[in-house]
Amino acid sequence: MTDQQHPDESAENSGASRRDFLKQSSIMAAFAMTPPAAVTAVEKGLHEKVATRFEQMPLRVTINGTAQQLNIEPRVTLLDLLREQLNLTGTKKGCDHGQCGACTVHVDGTRVNACLTLAMTTEGCKVTTIEGLANGDQLHPMQEAFIKHDGFQCGYCTPGQIMSAVACIREGHADNPDEIREYMSGNICRCGAYSNIVDAIMDVKQGGQKV
Fold first, then answer.
1. Is residue 52 within a helix (H) or strand (E), and if so which, with residue range?
2. What is the full per-residue pLDDT of the chain (211 aa) written as tens digits?
3. Summary count for the chain: helices (H), strands (E)
């Protein structure tokens, strides 16, 4: 024999379902009837709270040989400082997660991903971007080598590639093509110009040019 649900129990469950439905309907109706101005006021208040949460702090940093005294929010990355505030747009925003290398710059001679570096951590440091490599109208040897060997196609990743290539030689990791590929592996070229990039780096290394 199959168990039969007790009539009282069925009625009770049905009543609970109706009560839940009525409660949910009332909440939805109340939200729908909320004046748009009230919703806007709440959103504005939240936005103002977020906007005023971070106080600006002083930052002293030398960028491409020029001393800068800035006031920035502590949450600002070096990449956004360079691009959005200083208009140094040669440093590219690719993945914004430190995975592509398009934002590579030098901080006190060491290559870093600007998208993962808080600008405040560069207090008192010397930052070099792609704009700071050339000497006036004279291109840096690595820039000339990239042009000579067609080390790019679309060019979006090229600033980061060049900055890493310079660091690769300075670090002593450019003695052979395999070593160059290993130490340039953090820089992605979606156009696939890797072999030409290696040729450019080898050219500068073997030419003994100062980088």
1. none
2. 555 555 555 545 555 577 777 777 777 776 667 676 665 666 666 666 555 567 999 999 999 999 999 999 999 999 999 999 999 999 999 999 999 999 999 999 999 999 999 999 999 999 999 999 999 999 999 999 999 999 999 999 999 999 999 999 999 999 999 999 999 999 999 999 999 999 999 999 999 988 9
3. 7, 5
For the chain, list the domains and their CATH numbers.
49-132 (3.10.20.30), 133-211 (1.10.150.120)
Containing H/E element for 23? helix 7-32
Is the whole model's pTM more than 0.70, yes or no? yes
SS3 96: coil
